[in-house]
Specification:
440 residues, mainly alpha, Growth Hormone, Chain: A, 2 domains, 22 helices, 79% helix, disordered C terminus
């Protein structure tokens, strides 16, 4: 019997719960910032361009910060980068709450606008925790369970936008904008505290933090069930993952479905109102249905990917997305379009799970770097896709709101070609490396 207890704290399931809670609460600032932008618009007399930039900056920073912070996981584990991102978001949210409580609406002046942009950038750091959590969870779980673990993490965490979209209007109508910002700041702070006490690095990183050399730490971590190990420095893991073409194939897939998820969450309220003339509340419910379903089905998608493989799961999901997009592009019947929206939600959610099942499989020697590229650049689709869809809307002709879904038809076809290429080259890239052999 060993009289010296292991320095490793936590279990895979505990790490999964901690990362999921942190990511969920990290959405707090971004979820509130967009719906309350109109209040800033009215108080500051902002132009549509200024409002658009104000709404975009938290999501933009939350996407781009995923790249370096996810790579940081490969050097120090997930705990430090996760807490840094949550801390930055708390600072941004606290600044916004202070401005709203003390200045809104009468004392707000145009000179405040640049400060709002800066605080929006900081607030967006909370959603950059996504890729950090992906890498952290990947190191904790064996590959045979990663589809389920990563699907659960991302699926449950991504429920936040849908849930918050129901709660925010209630809080705003009953307590007003200042109270809403204080409440959401407390929600974000609570999530940060929860992660601080619950979040633990994978065994290899904990052992190394106790002064154990890298090779010995790997050996001991393998005994504890860890299968994947990092590449090295932040620059090393970014370079190594960028040099593997399959990283960019996975970026393309994630651009289509997670970028598409973000894009449609923003686009669908306008689509439902303009094309079908429904009230704002009904448009919100229909959009929340899409958002919540795409998140929940991701959990199922992860389990499916564990059973039949990431490539096959991605193939099935992209076919589902293609069918849904084709119906959306030609339907002018609300019930038919709702069915098509559900098909798109299923396709997107399942593929999002499949992609992160494939990341540790295809890029095992640089998971943090690959997760950063995939999560960061993939999410950028949320900015690129809406303008493309909007280009189909001309004047008062509302049919363009339906026709714009040909963008997703094109993206789905492109993604099917990418999946076919991944299936044809299975085992020809990263899996031939010594690290991949260790990873199984």
């Amino acid at each position: 019997m060993n009289d010296h207890p292991s320095p490793v704290r936590g279990t895979p399931n505990e790490a999964l719960v901690a990362a999921t809670l942190g990511f969920f609460f990290g959405f707090a600032a971004v979820a509130l910032f967009g719906p309350t932008a109109k209040a800033f618009k009215d108080a500051l007399s902002l132009s549509p361009t200024e409002v658009g930039l104000l709404v975009a900056v938290p999501t933009l920073s939350g996407s781009l910060l995923r790249i370096p912070f996810s790579a940081w996981v490969d050097t120090d584990g997930g705990r430090k980068p996760f807490l840094w991102l949550m801390g930055l978001s708390v600072v941004g949210m606290a600044g916004l709450a202070y401005i709203v409580v003390t200045m809104y609406p009468d004392d707000l002046t145009p000179s405040i606008y640049p400060i709002l942009l800066l605080l929006g950038v900081l607030s967006g750091a909370g959603i950059a925790t996504f890729s950090v959590g992906i890498s952290q969870v990947s190191y904790w779980f064996p590959q045979k369970r990663q589809g389920w673990a990563l699907g659960t993490y991302a699926g449950a965490g991504n429920l936040a936008p849908g849930i918050f979209s129901f709660l925010i209007p209630v809080v705003l109508s009953n307590w007003g904008l200042p109270s809403a910002y204080v409440i959401w700041l407390l929600i974000l702070f609570a999530g940060t505290v929860l992660y601080f006490f619950m979040g633990q690095n994978a065994p290899y990183f904990q052992l190394r933090d106790h002064g154990i050399d890298a090779e010995t730490a790997k050996a001991k971590a393998r005994e504890l069930g860890e299968e994947l190990f990092p590449a090295g420095s932040i620059l090393d893991t970014l370079k190594k993952s960028a040099a593997i073409w399959k990283t960019w194939a996975l970026v393309a897939l994630y651009f289509t479905t997670f970028g598409g998820f973000i894009a449609l969450t923003a686009w669908l309220p306008t689509y439902w109102q303009e094309l079908f003339g429904v009230r704002l509340f009904i448009a919100g419910v229909l959009t929340a249905t899409f958002s919540i379903l795409a998140s929940l089905i991701r959990i199922v998608g992860g389990s499916v990917a564990d059973r039949i493989g990431g490539e096959r799961t991605a193939l099935l999901s992209m076919v589902t997305l293609l069918v849904g997009a084709a119906i959306m592009a030609f339907s002018h019947v609300l019930v038919v379009s709702l069915v098509a929206e559900i098909l798109m939600a299923v396709g997107m959610g399942v593929n999002n799970a499949a992609v992160f099942k494939l990341v540790p499989q295809e890029v095992p020697e640089a998971i943090g770097g690959a997760s950063g590229w995939v999560g960061g650049l993939g999410a950028f689709g949320g900015f690129a896709i809406p303008p493309l869809m909007a280009s189909f809307v001309h004047g008062d002709d509302v049919t363009g709101y339906a026709t714009g879904f040909v963008v997703f038809i094109a993206l789905a076809v492109m993604s099917l070609l990418v999946v076919w290429l991944l299936m044809r080259t299975r085992g020809h890239t990263a899996s031939t490396s010594p690290q991949a052999a260790k990873a199984g």
